């Protein structure tokens, strides 16, 4: 059984952000309506999937609806910073998106991650404009990409302390690729 944590229809603001240094970041989705702020924790992969899904939805809708590019720029410039303190209501297990033709709003619906089948799960619904959805998708991709650099050999994230690269086969302290040196720990 699900219990509704919030239903912001419409949400004034919605963003994706992180806390912590690259490699140890905690990702979260945050939305507000008036003075109410709801923060939900989720994984980097979920942030990326949300962005990709929103872009696909918006591309599909683009033939039917116009977006105001100036509104998207204004949202990106002014509304993507998270509000403090960041205290997640729950960790997201599943996240979905949709669009209501009558209202013209996109919906982001998040379901709480649970381990018990009988347990009440939290549900949060955020109704947003197409411009907010585009700004959220663009910003979420920027946040995801701002993490650790990827190893050019194995394409896994590299930590500042070092990186064990399975493709280097345990040889040497550094691997040269196209004249560039990459440290290996």
Characterise this structure:
- The chain has helices at residues 44-61, 69-78, 130-145, and strands spanning 2-8, 13-19, 26-33, 36-42, 90-100, 105-112, 121-128, 174-177, 180-183.
- It has 185 residues and is an alpha+beta fold.
- It has two domains: 2-147, Secreted effector protein pipB2 fold; 148-185, no CATH class.
- The radius of gyration is 19 Å and the shape is globular.
Query: Tally the helices: what do you get?
Result: 3
CATH architectural designation of the largest domain? 2-Layer Sandwich
How do the helices and strands follow one another from N- to C-terminus? EEEEHHEEEHEE
Q: What is the CATH class of the largest domain?
A: Alpha Beta
Major sheet: order of its strands? 1-7-6-5-4-3-2
Shape: globular
Class based on secondary structure composition and strand pairing: alpha+beta
What is the number of strand segments? 9
What radius of gyration results from the CA coordinates?
Answer: 19 Å
Helix fraction by DSSP (H/I, runs of at least 4): 10-25%
Number of domains: 2
**What is the distance, rounded to the nearest whole angstrom, between the alpha carbons of the first and last residues?**
48 Å
Mean pLDDT: 84
> pLDDT below 50 for ≥5 consecutive residues: which ranges?
172-185
Q: Key features?
A:
7-stranded mixed β-sheet; 2 domains; two-stranded antiparallel sheet; 9 strands; single chain; 185 residues; alpha+beta; Secreted effector protein pipB2 fold
